[in-house]
Amino acid sequence: MSKHPAEPFRIKMVEPIELIPRSQREKAMKEAGYNLFAIPAKDVYIDLLTDSGTGAMSQEQWSSIMLGDESYAGARSYFKLKSVMDEVFGFEYFVPTHQGRAAENILASLLVQPGSYIPSNMHFDTTEGNLRAAGGRPVNLINADAFDISKDVPFKGNMDTKKLENFIIEKKPENIPFGCITITNNAGGGQPVSYANIKEVASIYKKYSIPFFIDSCRFAENCYFIKMREPGFEDHSPLEIAKMIFSLSDGAWMSAKKDAIVNIGGFLAVNDENLFQDISNALILREGFPTYGGLAGRDLEALATGLIEGLQESYLAYRIGQTAYLSEKIKEKGVPIIEPPGGHAVYLDAGSLLPHISQSEFPGQALTAALYLEGGIRGVEIGSVMFAHPDPDTGEIIYPKLELVRLALPRRVYTQSHLDYVADTIEKIIEKRDAIGGYKITYQPKLMRHFTCRFEPA
Ligand SMILES: Cc1ncc(COP(=O)(O)O)c(C=O)c1O
Fold it and tell me: Is the distance from the beta carbon of residue 329 to the nearest atom of ligand 1 less than 6 Å?
């Protein structure tokens, strides 16, 4: 197979994009308080802020939209989604939600008590935010290789199972309402978790009677990595691997805006009937009736179609190949990235690219700002802006181990020439890197500050 397989589709509808002049980009940045989230999308040329909800739906998904049944209760579209959910995930019960964090919020509000611990390989920011908001303590027990940027190991998203078991013994199972694993590990580079690791994690949680949940946003990409990298899975389809993975867990949630290639949607699925009843009641208060969650019937249709498309091997080969292509181009320019490339994004090591900027002045933020100013490219900081937080016991600021910038690739949206442009822009930034300065925060909310905080140059 080709290293970077060509798109298994052709383009039938286009959306114009424009690179506005540098002076206008500078003005836009100032007005946005140097926070890329506050820049109007029309002022962005290549938008790699996120792969969430930004994918291009297929002709099959658009035609599914027309089949949407908008009945309040028991819509035909719900049953279509249910049959796909049964086929792929195999849980007893599920509810649709409007996106991933709605599922996290419901789960956290039902299961987390003040002081509860919730282990994972690495929680994503919205998961952390929801767990903390319920008084919980999210704990990341990723394997040590995850922090060695250049180490090329196949499953850098794996959980450290020794640490997990010791942690459970130390904190006691009764203080751990549920445990998780995130596939792929977005906060740590979009890195996959092996089947063997998921199985071991599941058996540890089971040994201590702790319910096991999978944050499954990018499960299809994870399954493809298992097929390509884990001995014994060569002849399994991504769908078969998915079934094997989810049969090990007690529940899962998903932001369907990722691997189901829809612009909105998610779900929360469980096997426990009592928990499902509680979830349904919470859902009715917050999202909607249990057969539609926060979605329209047409969204349920597109989601059902997208879940199956997102597992197609030709699509996954192209998708993972595209990320690998951008990674190679950027590496050729001499920028350290997390290796090997993950599934949905390239992660630039801003900490080592800009060593003159201390963590308290946000090297990742400085690099995202430079990418926009130089080339109208929007990425996202995944470093101290996102993750630094006060220790709940001492109040001392705990900084994350890595200062990264994530360039996430929307699904089926950008071509190879767009990716070449991104790599060329990065080359220009490297030439000027000594002149790039840090930032200080002038406004921040209490939780998930990276979305709305404002900066000025330090
Ligand atoms: C691993 C992971 N979990 C949860 C979420 C939250 O999903 P949503 O943005 O749909 O609320 C995301 C979103 O990026 C994610 O990457």
Answer: no
- 418-443 b/e (C-beta count within 10 Å ≥ 16 → b): bbebbbebbeebeeebeebebbebee
Distance between CA atoms of residues 449 and 348, nearest Å:
21
CB distance 52 to ligand 1 below 6 Å: yes
Distances from the Cα of 85 to the Cα of 19, 88, 118, 239, 410, angstroms: 41, 5, 26, 12, 24
Give the ligand 1 atom nearest the CA of 52. Answer: 14
pLDDT band at 389 (very low <50, low <70, confident <90, very high): confident
Q: 101-129: per-residue pLDDT in tens?
A: 999 999 999 999 999 999 999 999 899 99
Nearest by Cα to 61 from 4, 20, 9: 9
Nearest to 343 by CA among 426, 405, 408: 408
Where does residue 190 fall: left (phi above 0), alpha (psi -120 to 50 degrees), or beta otherwise?
Answer: left
pLDDT tens for each residue of 156-186: 999 999 999 999 999 999 999 999 999 999 9
The neighbour count for residue 458, using CB atoms within 10 Å, is 15
- Residue 270 DSSP label: E
Cα 101 to middle of ligand 1, angstroms: 6
Of 2, 9, 60, 59, the C-alpha closest to 415 is 9
Percent of the chain surpassing pLDDT 70: 100
Ligand 1 centroid vs 387 CA: distance in angstroms? 15
Q: Which sign, positive or negative, has the C-alpha torsion 254, 307, 52, 407?
A: positive
**Structure confidence at residue 2 as a pLDDT band (50, 70, 90):** confident
Q: Give how far Cα 345 sits from Cα of 156, 178, 320, 427, Å.
A: 14, 28, 9, 18
**How much distance in Å is there from the Cα of 126 to the middle of ligand 1?**
6
Q: Is 266 in the pocket of ligand 1 (CB under 6 A)?
A: yes
CA of 52 to the centre of ligand 1 (A): 7
